[in-house]
Amino acid sequence: MRIATYNVNGVNGRLPVLLRWLAETAPDVVCLQELKAPDEKFPEAAIRDAGYGAIWHGQKSWNGVAILAKGCDPVETRRGLPGDPDDSHSRYIEAAVGGVLVGGLYLPNGNPRPGPKFDYKLRWFDRLIDHAATLIGMDAPVVIAGDYNVMPTDRDVYKPERWRDDALFAPEVKAAYFRMLGQGWTDALRTLHPDETIYTFWDYFRNAYARNAGLRIDHLLLNAPAAKTLRAAEVDSYVRGWEKTSDHAPVWVELGT
DNA sequence: ATGCCTTTTAGGAAAAGA
């Protein structure tokens, strides 16, 4: 089973790119982030015509997450993280697909730092870690995938010194990421490619993609039953080179299940 | 050092993204 995550940066503006990528690579499960569309504007028909069932949690203008499943409907198990009933952002959705529990997330950016947006990022990350603690020990494979908005190490940034004060590279945020890994999650991409330069995001400007001035911020975290069957993990970097493309590229894992 | 692009909403300009 191939499970992917893709921050599309506007699901309607990006629909041709998304449909082309689905047709060319046929992933079994896809977590989407930054739909930038309310629930009623989600392109359900086009995605169904492409062969995918879907659940989504939209929001006007910003945020928004979805889970697609090839040839079936994801069975929703949760939308939104527990721990803050006043959180109005659509940033987490979770479903069972083919015996795998899949969480799709869009972690807050957190800039500028310091400030209320950064505080929100840290609180949101804490809530994610609390929820992840309830999933890590499941007997079934669990994959928590999405845009974590954190580069875990210097190796995940084209120029680390330029990002020292940024909310995506702040010590508190990296610490939260490693606290989550400490529960027993496997960072699939880094585990299979320990020494490679791998990015999942490139700015639209400064010719960032052509210069490979990127960041690795989209991650797939696997619990032990999922990690045991991990066969491959890759970035579909070439999609970043398409016309009218997102600033993120799709990232995926292949599990033996 | 910098949102230098891009999307969204809205019908011009501004917010947000990373």
UniProtKB/TrEMBL annotation:
<feature type="binding site">
    <location>
        <position position="147"/>
    </location>
    <ligand>
        <name>Mg(2+)</name>
    </ligand>
</feature>
<feature type="active site">
    <location>
        <position position="106"/>
    </location>
</feature>
<feature type="domain" description="Endonuclease/exonuclease/phosphatase">
    <location>
        <begin position="4"/>
        <end position="248"/>
    </location>
</feature>
<dbReference type="InterPro" id="IPR037493">
    <property type="entry name" value="ExoIII-like"/>
</dbReference>
<keyword id="KW-0460">Magnesium</keyword>
<feature type="active site" description="Proton donor/acceptor">
    <location>
        <position position="147"/>
    </location>
</feature>
<comment type="similarity">
    <text>Belongs to the DNA repair enzymes AP/ExoA family.</text>
</comment>
<dbReference type="GO" id="GO:0003677">
    <property type="term" value="F:DNA binding"/>
</dbReference>
<dbReference type="GO" id="GO:0006281">
    <property type="term" value="P:DNA repair"/>
</dbReference>
<dbReference type="GO" id="GO:0008311">
    <property type="term" value="F:double-stranded DNA 3'-5' DNA exonuclease activity"/>
</dbReference>
<feature type="site" description="Transition state stabilizer">
    <location>
        <position position="149"/>
    </location>
</feature>
<feature type="binding site">
    <location>
        <position position="34"/>
    </location>
    <ligand>
        <name>Mg(2+)</name>
    </ligand>
</feature>
<protein>
    <submittedName>
        <fullName>Exodeoxyribonuclease III</fullName>
        <ecNumber>3.1.11.2</ecNumber>
    </submittedName>
</protein>
<keyword id="KW-0378">Hydrolase</keyword>
<feature type="binding site">
    <location>
        <position position="247"/>
    </location>
    <ligand>
        <name>Mg(2+)</name>
    </ligand>
</feature>
<keyword id="KW-0464">Manganese</keyword>
<dbReference type="GO" id="GO:0004519">
    <property type="term" value="F:endonuclease activity"/>
</dbReference>
<dbReference type="InterPro" id="IPR005135">
    <property type="entry name" value="Endo/exonuclease/phosphatase"/>
</dbReference>
<dbReference type="GO" id="GO:0046872">
    <property type="term" value="F:metal ion binding"/>
</dbReference>
<dbReference type="InterPro" id="IPR036691">
    <property type="entry name" value="Endo/exonu/phosph_ase_sf"/>
</dbReference>
<dbReference type="InterPro" id="IPR004808">
    <property type="entry name" value="AP_endonuc_1"/>
</dbReference>
<feature type="binding site">
    <location>
        <position position="248"/>
    </location>
    <ligand>
        <name>Mg(2+)</name>
    </ligand>
</feature>
<keyword id="KW-0479">Metal-binding</keyword>
<dbReference type="InterPro" id="IPR020847">
    <property type="entry name" value="AP_endonuclease_F1_BS"/>
</dbReference>
<feature type="binding site">
    <location>
        <position position="7"/>
    </location>
    <ligand>
        <name>Mg(2+)</name>
    </ligand>
</feature>
<feature type="active site" description="Proton acceptor">
    <location>
        <position position="248"/>
    </location>
</feature>
<feature type="site" description="Important for catalytic activity">
    <location>
        <position position="218"/>
    </location>
</feature>
<feature type="binding site">
    <location>
        <position position="149"/>
    </location>
    <ligand>
        <name>Mg(2+)</name>
    </ligand>
</feature>
<dbReference type="Pfam" id="PF03372">
    <property type="entry name" value="Exo_endo_phos"/>
</dbReference>
<feature type="site" description="Interaction with DNA substrate">
    <location>
        <position position="248"/>
    </location>
</feature>
